[in-house]
Design a protein that fits this description.
Blueprint: E1 4-6, E2 11-14, H1 30-47, E3 53-61, E4 70-78, E5 83-92, E6 95-105, H2 139-143, E7 145-152, E8 155-161, H3 174-179, H4 185-188, E9 203-208, E10 217-225, E11 230-239, E12 242-252
Antiparallel strand pairs: 1-2, 2-4, 3-6, 3-9, 4-5, 5-6, 7-8, 8-10, 9-12, 10-11, 11-12
Length: 255
Amino acid sequence: MSYWHRTGPRTFTPTEHVGGAWDLETQHIATLLGVLAHEVERDRAARRDDGLQVIRMSYDILGTIPLEPVDVEVTVLRSGRTIELVEARASHGGRPVVLLRAWLTAGYPTGDLAGTHHRPMPTPEEVPAWDMTRLWPGGFIASVQVRRCELGPGRAQTWVRTPHPIVADEKVSRLAQVAGLLDITNGVAVRADPKDVSFPNLDLTAHLFRAPGDGWLGLDTTVSFGPAGAGVTTSVLHDEQGAFGISTQCLTVRP
């Protein structure tokens, strides 16, 4: 079963796998982020076929969403031959609920320059399986496979994957599938028990220096809380070949 079904030209209806973790009556935002990335790529392919690549996805989460259909609209904010800025907007009942702004750029032959100092993670086979449902409820959490090495409060190395496609009966890129998993980062390296402290994220931004490969998605995650109710979750993003980007989330921390 997929996470979403397209039920109109721009309308998507969630399945049971979209159920939230903070509130079982609302959506877990993760997979909707994948839908928005999917629509950005579909829009690009419909307008131009010149290989522009997504190198940044910046999402703002404007509120909670019930387990009901959403509409998605894509707008080109800055067109160009080698660089574009595209916005995808998800709405529920006419109210905007998630905004994505994505930078797309042309590719260039920089293989001889490629490299990073981000350290490799242990392989998925070296990390024990973790039942995430012991800490978090909801349909989305129950739908993913997780391997985790806990390194301390707010610190973990995690591999995640899902057998479920983002959208039923549609070809969805690896990038969009990864985008639909990224929001799990705030729940894999908790600093405090979510029964005692709420720390939902208000946004998610992912910067990519190469396209993600197939297989497990790796998250080398650090969660930081400040003294006045703010926090940040930062993850170095890995596939089974190594690091490919960084994601950040700002948190509102509420005892």
